[in-house]
Structure formats: structure tokens, C-alpha cells
Amino acid sequence: MDTALTRRHLLSAGVGAGIAGLAGCAETSQDADANGSFTIVPTSDPTGTGDSWENWGGMTPYWTRVIEPLVWGTGGMQPQPWLATDWTATDDTTWVFDLREGVTFHNGDEMTADDVVHSFEEDILTERGDFVHGWLHLEPGSVDRIDDYTVSFETTEPFPGFPGTIAHNMIDIQPPEADRRDGDIIGTGPFTLAEMEQGQQLRVERFEDYWGGAPEPTGLTFRAAEDATTRTDLLVAGEVDLIYEPATSRIDGLRERGDVRVETEQSSGSVFVSINIHREPTHDADLRRALNYAISQDEIVTTVLEDIGQPARGPLSSVIDWAADEELPAYERDRDRARDLVSQSSYDGEELTCLVENDMDDGRTLVQILQEEFEKIGVTLDVEVLESASLRDRTDRGEFHLELGTSQSNSPAADYIMWENFHTMGISNKDLYEAEGTGLHNLGGEVDELIETGFQSHDPDEKREAYVAAQREIMDAGVVVPLFYREYVVAADAELEGIDLHPIDKFAQWGELTRTT
Amino acid sequence: MSVALESIASAVGRRYRALRTSRTLATFCANPLNVAGLSIVTAITIAAVIGPLVAPYDPTTQDLANRLQGPSLAHPFGTDQLGRDMLSRLLYGARLSLGIAVAVTGIRLVLGTAIGLLAGYAGGWIDEALMRLVDIQLAFPGLVLALVIAGILGPSLRNVMLALAVVGWASYARLVRGTVLATKERDFVRAARLMNVSRFRIATRHLLPNVAGPVVVLATLNMGTVILGTAGLSFIGLGAQPPTPEWGTMLADGRHHLRTAWWIANVPGVAIMCTVLGFTLLGDGLRDVLDPNHETTLEKPT
After folding, report:
1. Which chain B residues are within 8 Å of A231, Cβ to Cβ?
2. Considering chain A, what percentage of its residues have pLDDT values greater than 70?
3. Contact between B177 and B127 (Cβ < 8 Å)
């Protein structure tokens, strides 16, 4: 028998070994799925990049459902009892929260008021610093234990939006024993943190003693893939079970596949062009209105966005209960009118600067549409695509005319979007107002008063009336060019059931996730 | 008038005959890869020069109703995500990419040659100081340093040009210095020195012509890397700003449409690949004939 090793033998052996290796990998993955474990790919790295999630040892507080806040949010963007069962404003600045009894931490201890006081005082108000004080309207020393299951909060000023504001994944409750910065996370959520590979993935496991009942999945793996095309490829290759935001151009293709299901949900986010109203020539309301008349939101949604999104009339997503839409002036595209307004304005042909962040989804495409449409009414746009720190530096100094940006609320109370963007003392405007008496997007006067009324009103009708009036003033003056209300897309293995989407994508629940076969 | 024309014609004729019988040209053409490189570079140069004149559409005009159209008679290379004609953008992009490559290589060449010439001819502490500067520059990874510089200066093609020019001159300086050190000890340079010819004249008339060959080879090979560097920096957003039809930016625009509109990324991708390949082959060919240390041969490669 001839036993010489030929090239054919070698090749056959190589191919055989390759196939065996692949089969081995495939079997491993299937075994994990059969046990009720799922792999999910969110839009951002779940293990954090750099110091993103240093307060949680690198684990993202979003999506993973390891930690929980006192308050959650309903699908209608209203505060929903969670670790707290009820809350009452006992005076203008005092809130009393009743805690849920029988909530167990992952270490087996029961959650009490001491844990809530510790979490707020030490982890949230002291460690995270000034921005949290402004956001929550709380100062250190303002959270007190009343009894084992009751806690009081003293806000720095009347703040009716407080329960909705703390309904945020980052306002979580952990016991003092948790060494959170070292990755020792002791939450109350339906999953416990099992393993984390920085920049790669993190794995969570079912918590059997969860106060809401043990979840269906035995475990979840959150994988890092920040590029939309990579996420889509991972799903199509069957390497993951569910992805957020597949590549827009491939959504139609995914819909046609029998093995993939695609779901969309209008989010609390919107995309708009904010205009610097204190810089020439965009200080001229006629020019700003002209820019509004130049754009067709419908065309943008049906073409570039491939119908993923809703044409916008205002700067805030219409899922927010007090956001105005139909009540706002409609700037249908009318180039003749826009040209007339341009000629009436003080615009004399100079280039307007438009800033856009380099990693904004569809940012480059959208800004080029704006450039083309504005050119048609005689306005020249100079686009600058910048990374986030450079962009923030430019906007802080007010050295721009337009900025393509987004607003997004990760808690049911979206009041801060109005305050921070459009109130004179909001974060966008305050520094320039105090230094030069200007700002960026603040009309001041009556709009400031309306925002203050909306911000401080306990009456939902009064709040809505004030905010709608403020948004009408903002749109009348053309402070923004609204583009679209965002919808987010989730694509998953068709056999997955129990996907529970929420207007705040980071509020997704995985407790009912199952596989049909 | 006719006498003048006749003399011009005869001069051109003489040149042509000289070229046809040139051993150098024969050596160059003996290798088909050299000819391929020259052909590619010539074609791209012609496209860059006359492309904008023959481009069927404005490269920035959008047509959203016809976005993502595949190759057709109306749009031979298809349309992009904003309905712009890819062929027109490619032709305009050729002028931009080639222009940047020439400018950056020119800056590197002039700067590097001047420093190398000065270091090699002057010697002593000047040579020492300049060569340490070269060592420092070469110690940094070129593209990473360019990325940092472009990041600090802000995104624009001008800044990308500056960044790439700043990081690439050292190899010219080192090459020129080496050649000058060898040449300045040769008899004709010594003779010039004995005849009291000025240092400047010796450097420019006797030394510089002798470094021209290797420098031209290096510059040609460098053109490809500069095109790659520019495209790379534009791809990550540090170079050309929208709607400039730069190849790297076009590639970035197309990457999310690879499965549904392959032409958006592949057209500029193939253009970049062909251009770099063309300059590399041409550079290799020029080295065959211009590098004095390289054995020339008329034999075809086996």
C-alpha cells in the first residue's frame, strides 16, 4: 500500500480539520441557546470604553438589568413604581418615597431605606459630582431615612419632575457592601453580573430571587459591536440573537428574510438643527424661518431614513406627553417663500457654519441634504464634521451658526431637554449669557417664564399648556429646524419571543424572552 | 518662420529617435509590470486633468429620487446614497487625490532633500543635529503621528496635507545624506573644490544631480502611500469635508451600503487600489533604470 503523503491528502486533512472546528464552534453556540441564554448587541459597548462606566466597574447600567432605580417608566413616559411603590410631595421641595418590601439584593440581603440613603448620598451625590446636583436638584445631605421602608428627599427648589427624573438606569440602588468601582456590582435586578471581558462582552445570569419573579432566560450575553454593519453581519451569520439598530440600508433585506424579525419603536429622541440665534446672520428670524421653509422632513424620512422615523414639526419627540407637534407652525417646503425671506433678511451671501459630530448616525448624509437644500434658496453652508470634544468646544464658545444634533431622554421626565436647551440658564446658554449677555438657543423673556412654569407645575394640564406655548414661540422664531422623531430598530432571530420594547430603548425588559423551538 | 518650425521639428525628431534607441527606456519597457504601472499612472493623470471637463454630472448635485441606483448607461458606476453620480465623483476625486499626493510628496521631497544635502555636505555638528532630528521623526509611527496632527489641527484636507508632509520628509533626508556623503569624496567634486567653486554651486550643480535618481524613485513610491494616507484620514473623518468627492470619504459613505449598493464603496476602493498599484509598479520600474546601485538588464524577467 502506497502511504506517501500527497498534496491532496494534506489539503483534505486541512479542510476536514477546518470543518470539524467550525462544527464544534456551532455546536457550542447552539447548546448555549438551547439552555435559554441569548446574545444581545446594543448600540454601544456594554463594557464601556475608557472610563465610560467607571461607577459600575465598566458594566453599562443600560440594558443589562443588573441594577435598578426606585422608579421606572411606563410606555407612555410616565413614572412607574419599581423599587419604590409610591411617592408623595409633602411640600414644594420635599418628596417622601415608600419602598417596596421584600426586595432582595444579589447578595441575599433585603433592601432597606439605609441602602437607598447610602446609594444617593455616597454613590450618586458625592461620587458623581456637580452635574448630578443640577440634574436631580439634590445636594449632598438631602436624603434621609424616615423608617426601614420610607425615605425623604429635599430638592433644592420646587421640582415636580423629580420622580420621573430619578427613573433612570444610572440612579440605581446598591448596598454599602458593593465595591461597584471594582466591578463588584450588587443590584436588585433580574440578572446578576457573571463575567466581563473589557471591550468584548459581558455575561449576566438569572437571579432566582428577583422580586418580580425569576426571568425566563438563564443568562444573557451583551456583546460589543458599535458599528451598525458589523452588528447586522453578526445577526445574519447567526452569531447573535438580537441586535439594536442594524445598518439602515439593510433593514429592507432583513425584513424579507424568513429567519429574522424586525421591530421598530418610536423613541424619546429627535433630530434637529439648532441655530445660534446670537450670531450674525442667524440672529435674523427671517433667515431662520427661510431655513425651515427649505427643508422637506417627509422627503428625508422616506429616502435617507428608509421610513424609519417620523417627520418632525418640533424639537421634542412626540412620545413625550407634553411635546407639541400638531400645535406647532408647519413649515412645509416652499422654496419661493424661503428665497423671499432670505432676501428680506440681513444675510448677504456669507457661508454659514454647520457642525456635526463625526459618529452621529446618518449625520454626514443629513448634513449634505441640508447643504443642498439651503443652496437652492441661496444660502451657503460650510460643513464641519468634528469629534465630540472639538464640537463641544466650538459650541461652548458660540463659534458656529448651525448644529445638527439630537435630543434624547433616558428617563420619563424630559423637562431637562427644554430647560437645558432653551432656557437662558440652561447648560447650553448659561455660560455665554453670564459672560456676554447672549447664549445660543435662548429667546429669553416670555419663553423663559413658560419653561419655568412647565418645569415647576404639579398640574399636568398647566405643565403641558406652558411647554406647548414655549415650543410654539421657539418654532415661530425658527430657533430650530426640526427634522424627524427617531424610531429605533431591533432585529432578532425570528424564533425569539417576548421582546419588550420601550420608547426609552435602554428600558428594555428581557424577563419574557424565550425561543419558540 | 518655416526655418524655425523645421528646426523645432528636427529637434523633436532627434529627441524621439534618441528615446527610441535609449537603453534606459529599453530597460524600463523590458518589464511588462513597469509598462503596466506607467499606463495606470498615465490614465489616472489624464483622468485627473480632463476628468472634470468630461464628467457627465456635477459631483455634488443630489437626486434623492435616484439614490442607490446600480450601474447603468446613465450612471456607469451607479449613484450613491444621495443620488449623486459615482463616475463624476470619481473623476473629480482623482484630481483631488492626485493633487494632494503631488503636493505632499513635493513638500516632503524639497524639505527632505534640503536637509539631507545640508547634513551630508556640511558634516560635523550640523550633520549630527539634523540626523538626530531625522531619528526622532523616524521613531514615530508615521500614520499615527499624522493622525494626531490632523486631529489637533482639525478636520480639513489642508490639515491632512500638512500632517502627511510633516511626517514623511525624514526618509528623503536620510537617503540624500547617504548619497551626498558618497558623492562628495569623488574626484569631480574634489576638482571643483580645488578650483575654488563655491559650496552652494558644488551642492546644486554637482551633488544634487547625483541624488536625483534615488529621490525620484522614492517620491514615486511615496505617491501611493500618500494617497493611501489621505484616503485613510478622510475615511475616519479627519480629511475632506462633505460634500467634497474625495476617495476616502466616498469609501466611508459606502461602507454601510456594502451589501445593498456595493458600487459606492467598491468604485473608490478599486480606484485607490489601482492608483497605489500603479505608482508602486512605476516606482519599481524607475528604480530599475535610475538607481545607480541597481544592475540594469535588457533581459525579460523569468
Report:
1. none
2. 92
3. yes
